Amino acid sequence: MKRGLLYAVLALGLAACAGAADGQDVEVRPFEEVQASEFVFELDPTNPSRGIFRVDTTEPMICAIVWGEDERLGNFNNSLNMAGTGIIEHDVFLPGAEPGVDYRYVVQGTTADGTLYRSEMGTFVLPEPETSKTNTDDRENLALNATVTSVSSEFSDAFAAENTADGDLATEWSSAGEGDDASITLDLGAPQEVSGFQFLTRSMTDGTAVTETYTVTVDGSETLGPFPAGNSAEPQTTDVTVIGQMFTFDVETSTGGNTGAVEIRILSG
Fold first, then answer.
1. What's the CATH code of the domain at 93?
2. What is the pLDDT of residue 47?
3. Residue 11: phi, psi to the nearest 5?
4. pLDDT value for 180
5. Most exposed: 47, 121, 156, 223, by fewest CB within 10 Å?
6. Mean pLDDT per 10-residue segment, the chain (269 residues)
7. How far is Cα 90 from Cα 110, in angstroms, rounded to an integer?
């Protein structure tokens, strides 16, 4: 059993055990009793490597979706907006969900009084993107061989700084709520000729965590920018002419919150 599905089963199992210890049977109620909107599945317009699941509930809930390509499911996601408390508007990223693929899902959650709710198993298919604006720059991305030497903060191990230079749009670095103060330094290992930068911002479904502009400090001295940030769907390339080894990327302006980057690309000269 995969870890996500195991966590989901354990969550319900622990609740059931608690009820049994009190001599009570735990009842799982139909999710539709607290469902205030239709289940919506859409492609993330800023990152085509993931989907978004949305639903509103009639009262604050801790809510999650378990999904996969067959009835074994295997993926477990919830809203990062919860911040440890129940919410009504549930907007959940689905990393790795691909357009055109048939997925099965179950939605489950609990209210403040401990009542458990669970949907029937359903299916969803993400729509194909209207346009494809993936990175078409054929210059070598020097950041793929770089080492992260410092970072202002990391939200968790799952949002580590190294995710900015792994070539994977399904992973990302998130700071711990630093907004305009987030920064990260990449070491190329030796001085290199650089001809451009791309900073692909992460984002949250509530509009926070979007880096709008950033600066780049080369070898601790020359600061370039600010430059406009892009995203996975629409990379923004800034052309420069510089030689350096250590490149510090600082968020200049943002929408606040857990700013960071899906990818940072340092393009060869």
1. 2.60.40.10
2. 85
3. -60, -50
4. 98
5. 156
6. 38 41 71 97 88 96 96 91 82 92 97 95 90 69 97 96 94 96 98 98 91 98 96 93 98 97 96
7. 13
Q: How many domains does the chain have?
A: 2
Please list, in sequence order, all residues whose beta carbon lies within 8 angstroms of the beta carbon of residue 58, skipping any fewer than 6 positions away: 34, 35, 36, 88
Eight-state DSSP code of residue 44: -
* Domain harbouring 234, CATH code: 2.60.120.260
Q: Please tell me the predicted confidence (pLDDT) of residue 70.
A: 95
Q: What is the DSSP string of 183-201?
A: EEEEEEEEEEEEEEEEEEE
pLDDT at 13 (0 to 100): 40
> Which amino acid is located at 107 in the chain?
V
Residue 72 lies in a domain: yes
Q: Would 136 be classed as within a structural domain?
A: no
DSSP string, 101-140: --EEEEEEEEETT--EEEPPPEEE-BPPPS--------S-
Segments forming the whole domain that contains residue 119: 3-124
Distances in Å between the Cα of 92 and the Cα atoms of 24, 32, 78, 130, 236 are 32, 18, 5, 21, 26
One domain, residues 181 and 96: no
Q: Which residues touch 148 (CB under 8 Å, ≥6 apart)?
A: 161, 162, 164, 165, 184, 185, 186, 187
Do residues 32 and 119 lie in contact, with contact meaning Cβ atoms separated by under 8 Å?
A: yes
* pTM confidence score: 0.73
Which among 72, 90, 124 is the end of a domain? 124
CB count in 10 Å sphere of residue 147: 12
